[in-house]
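Example record

The entry below shows one chain as it appears in the dataset: sequence first, then structure tokens.
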Amino acid sequence: MKIPVMFYVILTTFLLVMLTIMAAMNMPFNWVFYTMCLGQLFVLVMVFKVLKENYTTDKTFENFYQDKPYNFRK
């Protein structure tokens, strides 16, 4: 079963937000430290998975931005 790439992105984001909350709440240092180490590992795994994803698109620079139409006339 192939795990989607967005799972890694969401998991890493959740872990690092939890790290921020743990640090702000003065949790014990060893919990924060090990969560930080785990977060760094997940960032590396996430980057690897995102870069190795077989994703293609038919968009080019001529499409410009999708959220804001581009007018050549002013």
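Notes for this example: The chain has a mean pLDDT of 87. The helical segments are 5-24, 29-52.
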